[in-house]
């Protein structure tokens, strides 16, 4: 196939696959234009767990936080989580079995997950307001 032969369809008259020539002209004095969908933000996203750069192919978003697929795991047992198999509480992620187990251990979300009971926080706020008014 010669460069000057005319290409019709996908093959030349010699029944060889065509070689499509790129006739676009490039100019060194024009800057490269990127599509509007390209964003530098996606290149600088960091994982909420390991704080390293997350690239689009390994990106996972849960509760508006960005993770690597491999970093998205249960806080209690480190099992890899998926978007359909996790429960979140106060920015921490758990597999569903451990989330239920920790809740059932104390019967509430606070003590089961190692925090003060919410009613104790209310009591301390009430005590502060009484001392301020006196």
UniProtKB/TrEMBL annotation:
Gene3D superfamilies: Cysteine Rich Protein. This is LIM domain containing 2. Residues 1-18 have a biased composition (Polar residues). It comes from the Eukaryota. SMART domains: LIM (SM00132). It comes from Cyprinus carpio carpio. Residues 1-37 are annotated as: Disordered. Signal peptide: none annotated. Keywords: LIM domain, Metal-binding, Zinc. Residues 45-105 form the LIM zinc-binding domain. Residues 21-32 have a biased composition (Basic and acidic residues). One of its GO terms (molecular function) is metal ion binding.
